[in-house]
């Protein structure tokens, strides 16, 4: 018998919730993939045993979401996710705490670094697309070459 996708699940312990949040809010593709999978699962309405706060204002302040036509909405949503959940779990002091040595990044620092990574990915994708389009439109690109026949001498 398959479990009911809409059935309630027991909430995860606080330490497990923090560990799951840490896995999703760090730089690198593995963390991005973990976040995107959790986000997609939440959007389907699947019960979330971590009870994460998925609310967002899509970073409406202080800058618009699409400066120079770059769509940073997904980066903003992940940024909101990190801020809201770390603050709920750790409080404002814990969210900004840099560890006992003062050298470790705080959860806030980590969320902001991931935000920059996600925005850079949008810019990089645009740059790759633009470069590819410019390269393809160049007269020397193979798509523009015609077959030349050698004339016999």
List the helices and strands and how they pair.
Blueprint lengths: L13 H11 L4 H15 L29 H24 L10 H31 L16
Overall description:
This protein has 153 residues and is an all-alpha fold. It contains four helices and no strands. The protein has helices spanning 14-24, 29-43, 73-96, 107-137. Helix 3 (73-96) packs antiparallel against helix 4 (107-137).
Helix content: 40-55%
Average predicted confidence as pLDDT: 81
Q: Could you list the spans in which at least 5 consecutive residues all have pLDDT below 50?
A: none
H/E series, N to C?
Answer: HHHH
Rg calculated over all Cα atoms? 23 Å
Q: Termini distance?
A: 81 Å
Shape: globular
Sheet-strand content, in percent, reads under 5%
**Biggest sheet descriptor:** none
Number of E-type strands = 0
Number of helices: 4
Secondary-structure-derived class: mainly alpha
Question: Characteristics of this structure?
Answer:
globular; about 55% helix; mainly alpha; about 150 residues
Short summary:
This protein is mainly α and 153 residues long. It has helices at 14-24, 29-43, 73-96, 107-137.
